[in-house]
Amino acid sequence: MEKINQKKALALSIVGVITLILVVVGATFAYFTAQTGDAGNINVNANTATTDNLSFQVGSAISLTANEEDFGLGTGNKSGSTFARATLTANNATNNATRNYYVYLSITKNDFEYTTDDEQAEILLKVTDPDGTEVTTISDLARKTSGGETGFDITTSKGLITIADNYEIVSTGTVTQEWQIEVIFANLDSDQNANTNKTFTANLIIQEGEIDNSLATYIASLHTINGENDLYYHDGTMKESYCTYNDNVVLSVINNGASTSSEDCTQVFNFDRTYYDASALDEGIEEGKVEQISYDGTCKTATTSTDVTVDGYDSVDEADCSGYALIIDGIAVKLNEVGSGTMQEYSLDAGDNSYRYAGANPNNYVCFGSDAESCPADNLYRIIGVFDGEVKLIKADYANSNLLGEDGGYNASSTYSTSTYPDYHGSLETINRYYWNNNTNNNEWSESNLNTVNLNTNFYGTFEKEWQDKISLHSWKVGGSNRENISLSYTPVAYQYELGNNSCNTDSTDCIVSGNIGLMYVSDYGYAATPDYWYTYLGETIEEKNSNNWLYNGMYEWFITPANGSVSIFYLYRYGYTSDYIVTSYASAVRPVFYLKSDVTMLSGDGSEQNPFRILV
């Protein structure tokens, strides 16, 4: 069995014993004071039917803190130490017992960095085995000498480090084996100011069984409370109160639809998603106010002028401005008053027990398809989330013809020149465009050239077999829904129509299509924004929403979800809102999406773009 000595999977509830190592640095120069608490042992027993007894103990927590008064040249290194101990008592029948165990150091938080150009180690790990011999080899860790000490450089390390791998303990009575662990913060006698207030946190674990080191388990373990590490657990418990009318969420003038009390729902409006040019209206209409405007676009006396905070659209469909209108940036958004609503609690999250990344720029990068020291741009992916034990990846930037090919849905006559798109976030100069289905000209994913040729033949074929074997064959739900339920609705509603209770649940090829490679769902995009935007309209342009959604890349691109009728597909407009388009009248950019098998193993990396997660091949 191939052993990995830097594994990164850990749930805090794991059976074993956890010792917390907490380091908080706060000064101009990084000189440290070690404070070690009283020893506190915890026993974990693992018994066999013949009364062999294997127990584990660890020392108490180590806290290494930096204090202003401790800093100064020549202060020296500071360190803390602890132990992990295994005791095996043989049974009375044979007086002979043999068992095996594992010792791990799991670094769950470490935002330290190198402060010298030659990357001198600033955090060192020293390990002494039960024979009293210093361990000099741990796979994937380099030994360095820094501050007069030699040890394993863990300055920027995160994840699981294997100290003892299936280590054997043999007893003819009672035998104890003890591992000594020391963490040293090196005084480099140089300016280490960049590490001021940085934190290092690790858990020391000793147990009989091997830890599950799958990437999916590791990602899930990074979440303990919603928002930590930009991860959110979608278990159906995130709820919000909204004003409703006939069970539909409607707009409260007081609080933009969100409700804190029943009084907020005394005057509510349907937001009919049609938007109008208000530039010709009288100057008496104020930005951010609700006004009554007439058919001819002139201002009448305001019915209400309560402040609201809804952003407008960036384009105009028609000029009929009857009813109420919300005026934002010269755009009048039509509102129809429905009277008094009721307050009702709605789910914000998907309720599918997934872990999803959300926010401006989470550390969710993965290098896939390459083991090069510096990950090539075409091999850089990002994690949408963990679904049923599988990690879902999306290409970090758009895929060009070198990956997708120049056949199938390829549009040979047109490309995007990224210099003309100021909101584009990637590094490509041009982006190739592809039709969603120029084969049968409908919105059946099973018949799409983009699906069968460009994604599941050409793109999939760019990976060597050992990488293809990591990709799951997935059942993609492609039943879709109408505009009102997807782009003109909220993310939780869109999810239900794409993948949830209101989605297709048959085996027909117009409902569920098997394939290795697909595209993202509209709800994937919606849930990549921070939760305060999950109950905003997906078809609404909100600049702040774009800047808080890591999936926003600033270009036009396809979703996998069909729209109403038989020829339309949802796509992402470059301003960040979703709409739908006819499959044959437009060619768009493509970001391939796929799921990794549940047993894909974590190897290294911290998920940043510069140090993406690496997996074992």
Secondary-structure topology with pairs:
Elements: E1 6-7, E2 19-24, E3 33-36, E4 44-47, E5 53-58, E6 62-65, E7 78-89, E8 97-110, E9 123-128, E10 143-146, E11 149-153, E12 159-171, E13 174-185, E14 199-207, H1 215-221, E15 231-234, E16 239-245, E17 248-249, E18 251-252, E19 268-277, E20 290-292, E21 324-328, E22 331-339, E23 342-347, E24 354-357, E25 365-367, E26 380-387, E27 390-395, H2 401-404, E28 410-417, E29 430-435, H3 449-461, H4 465-468, E30 474-477, H5 491-498, E31 512-515, H6 522-527, H7 543-547, E32 557-562, E33 568-572, E34 578-582, E35 587-588, E36 593-596, E37 602-604, E38 614-615
Parallel strand pairs: 2-6
Antiparallel strand pairs: 1-12, 2-14, 3-6, 4-5, 5-7, 7-13, 8-12, 8-14, 9-11, 9-13, 10-11, 15-24, 16-17, 16-23, 18-19, 19-22, 20-21, 21-22, 24-26, 25-26, 26-27, 27-36, 28-29, 29-35, 30-31, 32-33, 33-34, 37-38
List keywords for this structure.
single chain; mainly beta; 3 domains; seven-stranded mixed beta sheet; globular; disordered N terminus
Tell me the distance between the termini. Answer: 13 Å
Gyration radius from CA atoms, angstroms:
29 Å
Task: Summarize the amount of helix as a percent range.
Answer: under 10%
What percent strand?
A: 35-45%
Widest sheet, order of strands: 1-12-8-14-2-6-3
Structural class by SSE content: mainly beta
Mean pLDDT: 81
What can you see in these coordinates?
- The structure is a single chain.
- By secondary structure, this protein is mainly beta.
- It has seven helices and 38 strands.
- The protein has a seven-stranded mixed beta sheet with strand order 1-12-8-14-2-6-3, with no helix packed on it. Strands 4-5-7-13-9-11-10 form a seven-stranded antiparallel beta sheet, with no helix packed on it.
- The radius of gyration is 29 Å and the shape is globular.
- The model is unreliable at 1-43, 275-285 and 293-322 (pLDDT under 50).
